[in-house]
Amino acid sequence: MDNEHPQWHPDTLAVRAGHERTFEQEHGESIFTTSSFVYSSAAEAARKFSGEEAGNVYSRFTNPTVHTFERRLAAMEGGERCVATSSGMSAILSMALGLLESGDEIVASRSLFGSTIGLFDKYLAKFGVVIRYVPLSDLSAWEAAVTPKTRLFFAETPSNPLQELVDIRRLADVAHRHDIKLVIDNCFCTPALQKPLSLGADLVIHSATKFLDGQGRAIGGAIVGDHDTLEKLYGVVRTCGPCMSPFNAWIFLKGLETLSLRMKAHCDNALALAHWLEAHPSVERVHYAGLEHHAQHALAVQQQSGFGAVLGVEIKGGRENAWSVVDATRLMSITGNLGDTKTTITHPATTTHGKLSDEQRRIAGISDGLLRISVGIEALEDLKADLARGLDQLGG
Fold first, then answer.
1. What is the pLDDT at residue 5?
2. Which of 14, 32, 136, 260 is the most exposed place for a label (fewest CB within 10 A)?
3. Cα torsion at 125, 130, 134, 136 (round to 10°)?
4. Which residues contact 383 (CB under 8 A, 6 or more apart)?
5. DSSP of 306-359, one letter per residue?
6. CA quadruple 207, 212, 215, 221: dihedral positive or negative?
7. What DSSP designation does 245 have?
8. Pick from 370, 385, 256, 380: nearest CA to 313
């Protein structure tokens, strides 16, 4: 799946890439809601089932709508190929099943989404895969954790929800010195703000559920990288079945068309809200790489074109006060999802990271007073007023 139009601007790729019109000459992308495909003869069926002739066989294998989404996202990320999956977590699982064997090792950041840690520790470990966790930004710790059995580095940057970063180019250098593949979860930035493959990463993971859709409508995931590696991962999806539905692929295609516009609006709102929150007396700290005093602000400027939508906000007084701020909101949606045009708010220690042990949460920096706000595109003044309702009652 080579990048067909490398000369096009990324915003144009988001609208045009990947679509091959049918004989009907439709302008909008079609939704192929079919489980199977028919052939003109037994010989044609045999050729397509064997792979001798390209073509659709079964929608668990390939589907034209899903294929359009894959081609478009690959073009936007600058990858050779994309494999779409049923969710972001199934993308990570498919990646692991396709690339790892029992006894292999992953070095991963401590600052991962709670479900990713659960997948690694509870399920991959059960089949003999060893996971070693290191501080995300400490390149020497990544190097020290490498053994002859290390096959993958896995990191989210920025991290969820504390906005910690790693220098992707330098981490790729460490990985490649040891013949290790670097996998970057690019969920928070999307290709509108960050291109990990151009910085040396080997694979990019997405939860398409988040910003790629952008309106909280569908569940999906994707893996982007080179053709040979993705062929291995495609085999997992084809055989095990965590495939994306055609309807969801169509929704994600529509989301990609407005991705750049939405991410700019998200970033503008998030930066302004971060400045306002850090000045409030009831707020202990705001975690957002767009703030100049953030420890990795310069790195964010270097490898991202924007700072994203997600804020980590520590409320003075711990869980009780954090919950009271959440409960006082009337506009924001109290939900564990993020990446929506609607602002969402949640208490990570009891939701997204609630199944981690106290020690795991401590290591990951998930305090009892921490709130995660995924800033939407509503009017900024309304967002401030919604948070002020609870913050002002705390008295600083």
1. 63
2. 32
3. -70
4. 269, 273, 331, 332, 343, 375, 376
5. S--SEEEEEETTHHHHHHHHHHH-SSSEE-S--S-SS-EEE-GGGTTTTTS-HH
6. negative
7. P
8. 370
Torsion angle, CA of 31/34/36/42, rounded to 10 degrees? -80
Q: What strands lie across the sheet with 130-134, from one edge to the other?
A: 81-85, 221-225, 203-207, 181-185, 150-156, 105-109, 130-134
Residue 273 and residue 373 in contact, taking contact as beta carbons nearer than 8 Å: yes
Residue 2 pLDDT class (50, 70, 90 cuts): very low
Q: What span, in angstroms and rounded, lies between the C-alpha atoms of 55 and 41?
A: 14
Q: Hunting for tokens 């700072």 — which residue is that?
A: 307
Q: How far is the C-alpha of 312 from the C-alpha of 308, rounded, in Å?
A: 12
Closest CA to 355 of 63, 164, 163, 115: 115
Amino acid identity at 215: Q
How far is 139 from 121, CA to CA, in rounded Å?
22
Contacts of 44 (CB under 8 A, 6+ apart): 53
> pLDDT tens for residues 48-105?
999 899 999 999 999 999 999 999 999 999 999 999 999 999 999 999 999 999 999 9
Report the half-sphere exposure of 96 (CA within 13 A, side-chain side): 27
* pLDDT (tens digit per residue) in 177-229: 999 999 999 999 999 999 999 999 999 999 999 999 999 999 999 999 999 99
Evaluate the omega torsion of the peptide bond into residue 158 and state whether it is cis, within 30 degrees of 0. Answer: yes
Q: What is the 3-state secondary structure (H, E, C) of 3-25?
A: CCCCCCCHHHHHHHCCCCCCCCC
pLDDT at 146 > cutoff 60? yes
- Phi-psi map region of 130: left, alpha, beta (phi>0 left; psi -120 to 50 alpha): beta
Is-contact 187 207, C-beta < 8 A?
yes
CA atoms within 13 A on the CB side of 350: 15
